[in-house]
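#struct-pred

JT: dropping the chains for the assembly here, can someone run the whole complex?
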Amino acid sequence: MNRLVWIFAGLLLVAGCKKSAPTPEGYLPRPKGTLTFSKDVAPIVYNQCATCHRPGQAAPFSLLNYAEVQKRAKQMAEVTASRYMPPWMPAPGYVEFTGERRLTVDQIGLIQQWAAEGAAEGNPADLPPMPKWKEGWQLGEPDLVVTMPVPYALPGGGKDVYRNFVVPIPLEKARYVRAVEFNPGNWRVAHHAFFRFDRTGDSRAADERDAEVGFPGIHTPQNAQAPSGHFLSWQPGKVFSQVPEGLSWRLETGTDLVLQMHLQPSGKPEPVQASMAFYFTDRAPTNMPDKISLNSYEIDIPAGVSNHVATESLVLPADLQVLGILPHAHYLATEVDGLANLPDGSKQWLLKINKWDFNWQGDYRCAHPIFLPKGTTVSMKFTFDNTDQNPSNPNHPPKRVRYGLQTTDAMAELWLQVLTSNAKDAAALTAFNQSRLIKDTIAYNTYLLKNDPRDASAYNGLGKAMYFADNFSTAWNHFQTAVKLNPDLDESHYFIALIYRRQNRFPEAKQEFQRVLAVNPKHSKAAGNLGVLCLQEGNLADAERYFAQALSLNPEDEIARRGLDDVVRLRR
Amino acid sequence: MFCAAAVRGAEMDPFKAHKDAKALVFIFVSNECPVANRYAPEIERLHKQYTSNQIAFFVVHADPSETQASIDKHTHDFGYTCQVLRDADQRLAHKAGVKVTPEAAVFLPNGKSLYRSRIDNRQADFGKARTEPTERDLQAALDAIVQGKPVPKSETRPVGCYIPFQR
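RK: done, full complex below.
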């Protein structure tokens, strides 16, 4: 079904491409022997390369003068022609993103002609002024900087490392964040990073499983999430910017930052101690962006197939603007397409990547928000090469690869950051996302159970999906299975308690909430709920005790605060 | 035959110094080439594995702009324990016919070339590295030499940073 939609979209595109096709640019060779570093090449290198190719930045060597550039002239001609440098995956001519790192065909041609003709220096008097780069944080003095308390020791050799570092954020009250900036701490080995936030302690627990700093993998606990409605990632050369006016996001107290870093060994042992700067604002958000995701859980790529395709599509439930886009795939992916088919028959590209590279993934911010009306079909198409010709193929010889979370499995996800402009559209989008979330959560946890039929947290996930779909009897069964497999799973006990309470079975509910606290004494919501139940019973002493416990765990628990007020009032 | 290079500033001819070796292995690197640098643990591994088989191992720097002090620091940082040569006049690089770093050249002590190519196929292209090499060309060549068999030729162009040859 989804594939049909895609093929249909592709056919339409051929007809519509006159309007949106990228116009090819040609290089007009300059008179032979006239190109010099000082006059022609330095302006390109200073502005397009030296941002990273200078001391203390991400690139492995500097390109700041004739000697440094001349000895690499041939290399530069090759890597710019292949567009390996500057690194920027989206193809030109489709969507304009902020912070694009891309040379024009003319600039590439010029470097090639100059290198081929002997890389002449020319007259140093022709040199443009060296750009003045800002030292330190590019966004200015931060309001808060958090740093990994202990550096991670990356070995000199071996495979690439994907590791998550948990950094507590010391906040006395919740703040609105208008920008963040990342410093990887060691530019030689940091390749890309994603940032998530966890208030539950799950990531901390994952970190504490072994003595080493951080925990491995590209998938963090389900409770570690990007800020609601936002993407946060870093790649070398990333330009951090403030959120658009009115779209700040709330950072709660007691939150841990989860830094997920892709580290490439450099040949020698390297310490890694990353930092993140936060920039706050007192102005609460006036609108809240949301996310829409397309996921393919059915990926199954036969060994030896070079152009396997995974597609998915959805129809937008409301008018909205696309602000940003985040593709995710692993090693076998080669191409990523995101396309919108508008109700009026026109096409709008959202993303076009012709050379997917796992190592350079991140989010893209649209230079201009893309308006898509209700009824627009948004589709994604990921292409995979599972042959030996794909050097990124982790299997040699190639083998069948299915959907999965490990880098050696396959994934295909396209996330859109979107903004609605009125309450009706926002409500339609929320309802739409809720039903998709339920569907995705079921698909995802079903996948987890296929791998491990005794995965208690997967049953917990299925239970939550059913609970939010108002299917309480099925939810009940999943939560019961989860606590049978892992009696210490506090979240399942908590939901069991909620279901008891819905059924007005208060003593059983109370018992389950108490079980939550026995397993996890820091579960503020369980304490708050116990306070409410005790208050109902007229047991003011216990109610006060539980509300106080909830408030000490989460000072912003409004229900517990009001409960305490009630206790005081009833005592009078 | 004379082919001098410098070991910590002192001129030496590796071919004369290792007349009785089964073979001499030169691996060309440079201070700032990330591709070559990432090979440091693999180069050390090969050195340790073959040095007892009368195979002399050298890491060679052939960029004239690299100072002896910067090479010494590089040797220390990347933990090389084999001999490190500074080929400032690029005579060894020319003789070997290497073009990039990292690239390996293997000779008999009499100067006859046995092998010149990549270490392995880990680096498929710029920015495209396999998680593990699937063809270890240099190791295959050294195994053949140790066993007295014909050395398989590698036809593949090595991926790395061009050596800045002086005109």
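JT: nice. The mean pLDDT of chain B is 90. The interface with chain A takes residues 32-34, 36-42, 63, 65, 77-79, 124-132, 134, 161-162, 164 of chain B (CB under 8 Å).
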